[in-house]
Design goal:
The protein is of the alpha+beta class. It has five helices and seven strands.
Length: about 200
């Protein structure tokens, strides 16, 4: 199911906008706390905020593509450079994240696909049964953070506070997102990522 621009959209969040519309599909990315230098993130956020001020939503397909090119793909490219500790390269750590994602599949949400990269995670899914986006993501992050910290004998934050998410608007966007997830790990050595379904 795709975003319907004529129906109500539930909006929530902090620094980033977070949208949910019933069981419409959502593409989510979240990253490790040390995955990008803070100065780089702030600069990209400033550029994004300036662009958003002159491009109010809803967007047509061309404006959406421009946003993706200028911000989403640039941000993703920086993540793919594998900055930081890259804890998720460790199969034991990525297995914890994978287990968290699969645990409530077909109960609280329907997973379409996901990839666990060395320092970030991409998930394409649909919430079901009135489940809230922030509750689903919060559950994934809390469980995986606690269990990975246990393995390392550490405490404290593991993930960035906010995730990035985007409602899927069309079949072409769904096709693009699925392809992106599958192709994301292409430049990584085998064994440093987890892809589902395989």
């Amino acid at each position: 199911m795709f975003l319907n621009p004529y129906k109500e959209i539930e909006r929530h969040g902090g620094n980033l906008p977070h949208w949910q519309q019933g069981e419409a599909m959502i593409f989510v990315t979240w990253r490790l706390l040390d995955s990008l230098p803070e100065a780089v993130v702030k600069k990209l956020q400033q550029q994004r905020n300036q662009w958003l001020a002159s491009h109010p939503q809803p967007w047509d397909e061309e404006t959406f593509k421009e946003y993706n090119r200028l911000f989403t793909l640039r941000f993703e490219s920086l993540l793919d450079d594998c900055h930081g500790s890259c804890l998720l390269r460790d199969p034991a750590h990525s297995a914890i994240v994978s287990g968290a994602l699969l645990h409530f599949h077909e109960d609280r949400y329907l997973l379409d696909s996901f990839v666990i990269m060395p320092n970030h995670v991409h998930v394409l899914f649909s919430p079901i049964g009135g489940q809230k986006l922030e509750d689903i993501i919060g559950s994934w992050k809390r469980f995986s953070s606690r269990e990975i910290n246990k393995l390392q004998g550490k405490t404290g934050a593991l993930w960035q506070r906010e995730a990035w998410d985007r409602l899927i608007r069309s079949q072409s966007q769904l096709d693009w997102t699925r392809k992106y997830i599958v192709k994301n790990p292409e430049k990584l050595p085998t064994g440093t990522f987890q892809l589902w379904p395989q």
